[in-house]
Amino acid sequence: MVNVTKLLSAFEGKSARIGVIGMGYVGYPMAVLAAQKGYTVVGIEVNEKRVDQINQGISYIQDVKSEEVKTLVENGKLSGTTEYSVVKDLDVVLITVPTPLNKTGDPDMGFVIQAADQMQEFLHPSMIISLESTTYPGSTEEILSKAVTDAGYVPGEDIFIAFSPERVDPGNKVYQTENTPKVVGGMTANCSEVATALYSTLVKHVIPVSSTTAAEMVKLYENTFRAINIGLVNELAIICNLLKIDVWEIVEAASTKPFGFMPFFPGPGLGGHCIPIDPSYLAWKMKSLQYKTRFIDLATEINTGMPVWVINRVATLLNEIEKSVKGSKIMILGLAYKADIDDLRESPALDVFRLLEEKGATVVYHDPYCPQAHIGKQTHHSLELTDETIREQDLVIITTGHSTVDYHNVLSKANMVFDTRNITRKIAEKYDGKVRFL
Ligand code: SAJ
Questions:
Q1: What is the average pLDDT score of the chain?
Q2: Residue with CA nearest ligand 1 atom 14
Q3: Contacts of 432 by beta carbon, 8 Å cutoff, 6+ apart
Q4: Mind listing the pLDDT tens digit for each residue in 401-414?
């Protein structure tokens, strides 16, 4: 049994050395925060280009400022490496690697397992490993305690294990890593004590829960809550369209209820690296226990079906001007999965683009944040948004409502606009009915 107080005082005095495995949209901000708090931090990253950028003080993550990184690197507080051997000198390892779905829609824990395997030979007594990547209940114990025991140590006595879900909302200017409450669950009481002490030196609010499994479940519940409510409002959009009711008016009016209601907004589908994926982690785990998560499955069915519904609406709109999808010129305006970020992962706009091309339309896109995109078998480039490129389209579909776009100019030059994000509602009436809404 190691001496916990030694580790706790290393947190207090910031002499503890921290490693962050996976320097992406979760790991990089966390590494910068820990270094700003006074720790010496090393980012362990498989991508050599990213390692070079970190060591040159360059940020490749929208929410991390290069000037902050540069100062920390120059002061020797932050560095990057591809080598796992650094783990032998670390007191803390935070794992923030991707946990996507594989081709069959099952959880892909490959990156977590790879991280555990690669650091195993360098594990040593009196250190803590905390997994932050979203995963299914029970997996932290399954994967990390195996690595610790295989290395010849006792979890919770020699090496401490915790799960603390990331709650990064990319592009959120109000809530960042330091001021977003952090749920923390340890594998044992000692693990919880050590993990809570560590995170208390990093973030403003630590929320201890009883186990790693509880912490894993909290994260999945948070994001499943969002996915199901987005699915509900997307189905409401379909219902309202059939009843010739404006769904946006309904949501806006319902939002006036000061208690017991929380607005969600319809859209062309569900993008990002979390909301479309996390509920499937829970559904997959429950399938292995012979339980069918009906709510999750239904929400997933509705959300993944929204791009097809958008295409059906497009066909109806073009029909109004005696055009078919085939042969029409269509611009997708906004390709990223949500406004004012540069991330294309799981973006429904990509599905809309691909489905329109499959139906024979000539499709282009403009996105001020995404200069190029791989869609289907081709790489497309963002078309400059000029009077000419807008005028030559039969239809402009707003799939993501980036705030930097001049929508007045788009509406004045376009022949017809299908706004799936309600971003032009306030100005649309000036443009004699050429705007339709989801
Ligand atoms: N969306 C809708 N309607 C809504 C809200 C969102 O269609 O009412 C769509 C968005 O357009 C986007 C997707 O859902 O395509 C996900 O949106 P999001 O706002 O959840 O954005 P993420 O995935 O970047 O960030 C989320 C966090 N967002 C918020 O809490 C607002 C949070 O759910 C998680 O902490 C985080 O992912 C994560 O990493 O788990």
A1: 96
A2: 270
A3: none
A4: 999 999 999 999 99
Pocket test for ligand 1, best of 236, 261, 275 (most atoms within 8 A of CB): 275
Both tokens of 368, joined, read: 């001020």
Edge-to-edge strands, sheet with 329-333: 362-366, 329-333, 395-398, 417-419, 435-437
Dist CA 400 CA 367 (whole Å): 9
Distance CA 147, CA 208 (A): 24
Q: What is the mean pLDDT of residues 108-125?
A: 97
| Total residue length of the chain | 438
Name all residues whose Cβ lies below 6 A of ligand 1. Answer: 166-170, 223, 226, 230, 264-265, 267, 270-272, 274-275, 337-338
Q: How far is the CA of 272 from the centre of ligand 1 (A)?
A: 7
pLDDT band for 1, please (50, 70, 90 cuts).
confident
How does pLDDT run across 276-311, given as a tens digit for each residue?
Answer: 889 999 999 999 999 999 999 999 999 999 999 999
Q: For residue 274, indicate whether it is catalytic.
A: yes
Given a cut of 90, is residue 416 above it in pLDDT? Answer: yes
- Cα–Cα distance, 96 to 20 (Å, whole number): 7
Locate all alpha helices (DSSP H) within 243-293, ordered by sequence: 247-254, 278-287
- Taking the C-alpha atoms of residue 155 and residue 130, their distance in angstroms, rounded to an integer, is 12
Token code pair at residue 102: 């594989």
Which residues, at least 6 apart from 338, have a Cβ–Cβ distance to it below 8 Å? 171, 271, 272, 400
Question: Do β-strands 182-186 and 159-163 pair in parallel, antiparallel, or remain unpaired?
Answer: antiparallel
- Ligand 1 atom 27: the closest Cα is on which residue? 169
Q: If phi over 0 gives left and psi between -120 and 50 gives alpha, with beta otherwise, what is residue 206?
A: beta
Q: Strand 378-381 and strand 362-366: pairing? A: unpaired
